[in-house]
Design a protein that fits this description.
The chain is of the alpha+beta class and about 850 residues long. The protein is built from 31 helices and 18 strands. Helix content is about 45%, strand content about 10%. It has a four-stranded antiparallel β-sheet.
Length: about 850
């Protein structure tokens, strides 16, 4: 059997890398194999039992996700480099000399290195072959279930077989399979391999990986995977291709065990990211490995073909109809939902119940059978009535009415498909009642969660403080046992990767040195209670507690949607300086559902939370990294931005997903239920905080049109639907009052404000500054509580005024004692109400933080002309 070739174009060698390409593997493609064509076939056999052949047409191959930009796995052609010359048949002494020429160490270490290579070479010399690769393949270790480590001597020996194997692979003498490489190479194989290549392009790639804003553990894992890929595919660094990285990731998943949680993740993602960011991939390559694996947006044709329409004419009609509707300004999510309604939930069911149906003219029996099937849906508990039946009926009815309307303008195209709408007008009976029942269920959900919100906020705040104190105590402790929060813990230090890499880490990270230095393993700080219990990853627990607190606080203090939360970036923080020098912090919400940008003035609590998030990022990495956000609804990446809610997702850094946000909130609710029986079975969703925010705004006296502006609603009717406990009669009378008042006002009141009027407007906000903080009453409204600020819900207490609240509380207690001695029962009742409000405001002010100024780093805008 010929030895390994060293020139591109030579005869391919028979290595395990070749055996990974099974007969079912995709055909060889170009360097960036972007799949855009294929054969579409019907998914299911005919339901009527007939022998009719399914319709087959040429079109994009069906995938679960998008097909565009999908990179198919393909290993590159082997081009084994020779950094130390041709050593394929070299004597043992030459192998040892080459190994000792890199990574200079002490004489003892070099002697151990030489002994390891010599013992492995002597072992391989017992097998037939001319080259070392042929002897390795003849040894049977590739197919053996036993690892080469079984030949290692006792730990006291000065050599190991695995060390000799790692050095021969690093010298490009042996090309093993990925399975053998993973279970045989030594732990510092990446360091050995990188040092032995003498490749400037590889050194540059290593430097880029070490500079990536991820944990050291993730960098080490990426370097190890890079070494595995180059050794296993027998290529230099310059031959790394997107299909090759995809092939390596697929092969690594195949050889990973079920217990290897890291092996199942997308391997090579950090290598992909740094090469893509450096512009070293061909034009058109997806910017992330995730996008290359699942694909981006589907075309309308691909969306329709996902559900396998049998009749080619109806299939083309649906494609044309959805394409025409999509051209009217629909976003991708709306288009995919429309296809799901018309194709999967309408026409595919019609074809199943009536295989002979060839047009849109449905008879009564077909319509009745379709309606009976779509009225219910399958659930694990059985079939239940479909809640969204009205949306489906509206979409199908719009299909018929649109075709009838379009046939007037283009009779040749749409005229043959004009048919009577099978959905009778009476079918819409109950739509209004159904919408009211839905609004009632939502309002009832909001009412049930309104008194629970404070319990949830208190829990996540306390969890954050406990986790932060535990981490500080564990880091500061030099003993095996330490105390935190009155509990004794046992400190355990393990070396290896940490699950905390899933979340942004606390504290600065060290950076790796040159490529020839040994890898720095990240110490995973783990503790357990002294009396026993589960092991706690302290850094991961602190990060999880912080981000749970940050997510809930931002959602409840702003009322933004969860996709708007994930789109917040450092650039969203703005400031407005008033003429009197006061700085007002603003939070800019990017356009989302209603495509309207809005600005939210930040309260002191919100300002504190945003400052904590920015400080956490800048304290760890010096600046907030620029990352791309994957939009699961639009199925596309954003431009690189300094997003606030970002974390390390494996080897790369990205924005948190909506699933992770929901999981953090759901976990927090379960933890509250442990000590609060009334919380049992109660869960919050991100949108619940939006409804609670709207309810609190209106109930505290804010005009509903101001609330609509803060929530980003285009209609007051939408805001009314969010307010669960606001009386409908009040809203109606208030709207009538606004209408009458606007009709009575002269037109000149709608002119631009003069300087005097604008000055009066600003003075209103100056007058809202009171002793304890700021009053939040709207412009043009007097004090509704006769300046009883402690009782007023509009008062926002500043943290530095907490000592003043203590003085007021002491005075109130003295007044209550006097009232009790004098028998003034009415006075006692009033003092108790004031004390309750004072304690509530004091607890709220304490959550903001210590009585000190909050540093909010502002984004720095670079001068584009200097770039």
């Amino acid at each position: 059997m010929p030895g390994p070739r060293h020139r591109r174009g030579a005869s391919p060698r028979d290595t395990p890398m070749r055996t990974l390409r099974s007969s079912s593997a995709p055909a060889p493609m170009s360097r960036v194999s972007v799949s855009t064509t294929g054969v579409w076939t019907r998914r299911d056999a005919p339901q009527d039992g007939s022998d009719r052949e399914p319709f087959v047409h040429e079109g994009p191959a069906r995938r679960r996700w998008g097909q565009a930009n999908v990179v198919e796995p393909e290993a590159p052609e082997p081009d084994l480099p020779q950094p130390h010359g041709d050593l394929s048949k070299a004597p043992v002494e030459d192998l040892i000399a080459a190994a000792c020429s890199v990574l200079p160490r002490s004489a003892v270490q070099l002697d151990k290195r030489g002994r390891s290579i010599r013992h492995l070479a002597e072992h391989l010399s017992a097998f037939p072959g001319v080259s070392w690769q042929e002897r390795w393949e003849a040894s049977g270790w590739e197919s053996s279930t036993t690892s080469l480590a079984s030949l290692n001597p006792s730990p006291t020996a000065s050599w190991t077989m695995t060390s000799g194997f790692s050095w021969l692979v690093a010298l490009r003498v042996l090309v093993p399979s990925l399975r053998v490489l993973r279970r045989t190479a030594v732990s510092d194989f990446a360091t050995i391999f990188m040092a032995g290549q003498r490749d400037d392009s590889l050194a540059s790639l290593v430097s880029r990986i070490e500079a990536a804003p991820v944990s050291v553990a993730m960098q080490n894992r990426a370097l190890t995977e890079l070494a595995y890929m180059l050794a296993y595919q027998a290529i230099p660094a310059r031959d790394i291709t997107p299909p090759g990285i995809m092939q390596f990731g697929k092969a690594l998943q195949e050889v990973s065990t079920a217990q290897d949680k890291h092996g199942r993740k997308l391997a090579g993602s950090l290598v992909w990211q740094v090469l893509a960011d450096a512009g070293l991939f061909p034009e058109g390559t997806p910017v992330t490995m995730r996008l290359a694996a699942v694909g981006g947006r589907k075309t309308v044709t691909e969306l329709v073909d996902t559900y396998s329409v049998r009749d080619p004419a109806v299939r083309q009609l649906l494609i044309d109809y959805v394409t025409h509707r999509a051209g009217l300004g629909m976003d991708y999510g709306t288009v995919s939902n429309l296809v799901r309604s018309l194709v999967r939930n309408f026409w595919c069911i019609v074809e199943r119940v009536n295989p002979d149906q060839r047009d849109l003219d449905l008879d009564e029996a077909t319509y009745a059978t379709w309606r009976a099937e779509v009225d219910t849906v399958d659930t694990p508990e059985g079939r239940r009535p479909r809640r969204s039946i009205w949306d489906l009926l509206i979409a199908v009815r719009a299909l018929y009415l649109d075709i009838q309307s379009w046939a007037v303008e283009d009779p040749a195209r749409w005229g043959p498909w004009v048919a009577r709408c099978p959905i009778p007008p009476i079918a819409s009976k109950g739509y209004g009642a159904g919408r009211r029942r839905l609004a009632e269920r939502i309002a009832d959900r909001t009412r049930a969660r309104q008194p629970m919100l404070d319990l949830l906020v208190d829990q996540v705040t306390a969890d954050r403080e406990r986790a932060r104190a535990l981490l500080a105590a564990a880091e500061a402790s030099t003993e095996a046992e330490f105390e935190a929060g009155g509990i004794r813990y046992v400190r355990l230090v393990e070396t290896g990767s940490s699950n905390a890499g899933r979340y942004p880490q606390k504290g600065p990270r060290s950076r790796r040195g040159a490529a020839i230095e040994p890898p720095q393993q990240q110490a995973t700080l783990r503790v357990r209670r002294a009396g026993g219990g589960p092991v706690i990853d302290v850094e991961a627990a602190e990060a999880r507690a912080f981000w749970t607190w940050a997510v809930i606080e931002v959602l409840r203090l702003t009322g933004i949607r969860h996709e708007e939360l994930l789109e917040l970036s450092h650039l969203s923080v703005r400031q407005y300086r008033r003429p009197n020098g006061e700085i007002v912090a603003l939070l800019v919400i990017t356009p989302s559902k209603t495509d309207r940008e809005r600005v939210i003035p930040m309260s002191p609590e919100l300002l504190h939370v945003i400052a904590q998030i920015i400080g956490r990022h800048t304290g760890q990495l010096g600046a907030i990294p620029l990352v791309r956000r994957w939009d699961p609804y639009e199925r596309q990446h954003s431009d690189p931005l300094p997003f606030l809610f970002q974390h390390s997702t494996g080897q790369v850094r990205g924005v948190m997903s909506p699933t992770l946000i929901a999981k953090l909130i759901r976990t927090a609710c379960k933890e509250v239920a442990v000590g609060r029986p009334q919380f049992d079975g109660v869960t919050f969703t991100p949108h619940d905080f939006r409804r609670l925010f709207a309810t609190e705004l209106v109930n505290n006296g804010l005009p509903i049109h101001i609330g609509a502006a803060l929530l980003g609603h285009a209609s007051l009717q939408t805001t009314r639907g969010y307010v669960a406990v606001f009386d409908e009669d009040v809203v109606r009378h208030y709207q009538l009052h606004l209408t009458r008042r606007r009709q009575l006002r002269p037109n000149d009141e709608y002119r631009r404000a003069t300087e005097t009027e604008w000055q009066e407007f600003e003075e209103h906000f100056d007058k809202r500054q009171v002793e304890l903080g700021a009053c939040g009453r709207p412009y043009g409204t007097p004090c509704a509580h006769e300046h009883a600020c402690v009782r007023c819900p509009m008062l926002h207490v500043e943290p530095q005024m907490l000592p003043r609240l203590d003085e007021i509380e002491a005075d109130l207690n003295a007044r209550r004692d006097r009232a009790e001695s004098e028998g003034w029962h009415g006075e006692i009742e009033g003092i108790e109400v004031t004390l309750d409000q004072l304690r509530f405001k004091r607890d709220r002010a304490r959550r903001i933080g210590p009585a000190a100024s909050v540093t909010l780093p502002m984004p720095v805008m670079r001068d584009q002309t200097s770039i």
